[in-house]
C-alpha cells in the first residue's frame, strides 16, 4: 500500500515542504512515482519518517536524527551468529595470530563482517585477550605473541569506531579517557564503540590522560558524558578526589568505571561508578 505526500504529512504532522526538504537535502527516503508523477510513500518510508520525527520531538536536530537512524540501520543489518560457529572462527583466528599469519587472520575477520560489533567484542576479541593474558602468565604464550595479538585486537576496535565515523556528527558528545598513569585503553575503546552504536559522538582521548588536562577539555567541550576507564587498583580516596575534581568542571554525567574500582566507593552527586561496560550500557 502506498501513500500520497499529503496523507503522510497529515499522518505525521510534518509539513509537506519539510518532507520534501528531508528527501532532497538528506536523501532520507526515495518514494516511488505513480504514473501521474505523484510521489508514493511505502510503509517503510513512513516508518523511517516517523522515527525521524520522534527523534526531532525529543530535541535532536534533523541531521543528528538522520545520522542516528543510519547507525541504527547499520546495526540492525548486522546479526548475531550461532555460538558454535563463532567459537570455531575465534579458535581459528587465535591459531592464525599465534603464528603471525596476518593473511589468514584478515580472511577470518572478513567472515565476521556480518556479526554485530557488540558480539564481536563480547564473544571474539575480549575472550581472546583474556586467553592471551592467561597464556602469557602461565608461560604458554610469548611476550611477542601477546603484543601481536593485543595490537591486532586493538586495530579491529579502532576500525569499528572509524567505520561509524566516531558516531553521529551532531550526536550528544561523550568524552572517553584513561585514568592518569594507566597505559591500557582496550576496554575504553570497546566502550567507545558501544556508545557510538547508541548515537553518541565520541571524543576518544586514549590512555593516561592527566586530570587537569581532562578538566580543561571537559570545561571547553561541554560533553553530555565524560567516561574514565580505571583498569588498575587505586586507593579509594584518590579515586574520590579525582571524581570530585572532574565533577566540578563537568556540566553533565561523569562516569568512572572498570575492573580497577575498589568495592567501597563514596556516593558523589553527579558521579557514576560502574565496574562493567554492561552496567553502563
Distance from N terminus to C terminus (CA atoms, Å) equals 38 Å
Average pLDDT works out at: 88
The geometry reads as flat
**Rg for CA atoms:** 23 Å
Please state how the strands of the largest beta sheet are arranged side by side. Answer: 4-3-5-6-7
Q: Low-confidence parts, pLDDT < 50 over ≥5 residues?
A: none
Which structural category fits the helices and strands?
A: alpha/beta
- Helical content (DSSP H or I, runs of 4+): 55-70%
Q: Give me the count of strands.
A: 7
Which percent band covers the strand fraction? 5-15%
Largest sheet: number of strands, sense, barrel closure: 5 strands, parallel
Counted by DSSP, the helix tally is: 12
Features:
281 residues, alpha/beta, 5-stranded parallel β-sheet, two-stranded antiparallel sheet, 12 helices, flat
Structural summary, described in words:
The protein starts with a helix and ends with a helix. It is 57% helix and 11% strand. The protein is flat. It is built from 12 helices and 7 strands. The protein is of the alpha/beta class. The model has no long low-confidence stretch (mean pLDDT 88). The strands form 2 sheets. The chain has a 5-stranded parallel beta sheet, with helices on both faces. It has a two-stranded antiparallel ribbon with strand order 1-2. Helix 5 runs antiparallel to helix 6 (102-111), helix 8 (143-163) runs parallel beside helix 9 (186-197) and helix 10 (211-221) runs parallel beside helix 11.
Amino acid at each position: 500500500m502506498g501513500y500520497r505526500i499529503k496523507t503522510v504529512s497529515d499522518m505525521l504532522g510534518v509539513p509537506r515542504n519539510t518532507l520534501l526538504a528531508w528527501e532532497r537535502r538528506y536523501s532520507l527516503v526515495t518514494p516511488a512515482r505513480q504514473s501521474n508523477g505523484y510521489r508514493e510513500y511505502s510503509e517503510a518510508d513512513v516508518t523511517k519518517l516517523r522515527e525521524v520525527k520522534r527523534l526531532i520531538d525529543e530535541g535532536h536536530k534533523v541531521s543528528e536524527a538522520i545520522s542516528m537512524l543510519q547507525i541504527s540501520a547499520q546495526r540492525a543489518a548486522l546479526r548475531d551468529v550461532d555460538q558454535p560457529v563463532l567459537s570455531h572462527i575465534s579458535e581459528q583466528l587465535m591459531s592464525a595470530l599465534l603464528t603471525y599469519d596476518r593473511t589468514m587472520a584478515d580472511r577470518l575477520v572478513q567472515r565476521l563482517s556480518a556479526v554485530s560489533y557488540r558480539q564481536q567484542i563480547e564473544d571474539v576479541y575480549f575472550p581472546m585477550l583474556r586467553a592471551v593474558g592467561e597464556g602469557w602468565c602461565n608461560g604458554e604464550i610469548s611476550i611477542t605473541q601477546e603484543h601481536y595479538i593485543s595490537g591486532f585486537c586493538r586495530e579491529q576496535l579502532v576500525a569499528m569506531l572509524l567505520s561509524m565515523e566516531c558516531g553521529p556528527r551532531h550526536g550528544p558528545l561523550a568524552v572517553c579517557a584513561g585514568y592518569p598513569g594507566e597505559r591500557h585503553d582496550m576496554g575504553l575503546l570497546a566502550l567507545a564503540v558501544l556508545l557510538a552504536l547508541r548515537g553518541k559522538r565520541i571524543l576518544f582521548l586514549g590512555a593516561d590522560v592527566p586530570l587537569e588536562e581532562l578538566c580543561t577539555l571537559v570545561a571547553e567541550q561541554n560533553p553530555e558524558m565524560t567516561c574514565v576507564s580505571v583498569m588498575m587498583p587505586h586507593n579509594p580516596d584518590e579515586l574520590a578526589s579525582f571524581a570530585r575534581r572532574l565533577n566540578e568542571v563537568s556540566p553533565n554525567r561523569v562516569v568512572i568505571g572498570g575492573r580497577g574500582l575498589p568495592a567501597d566507593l563514596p556516593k558523589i552527586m553527579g558521579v557514576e561508578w560502574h565496574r562493567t561496560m554492561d552496567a553502563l550500557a
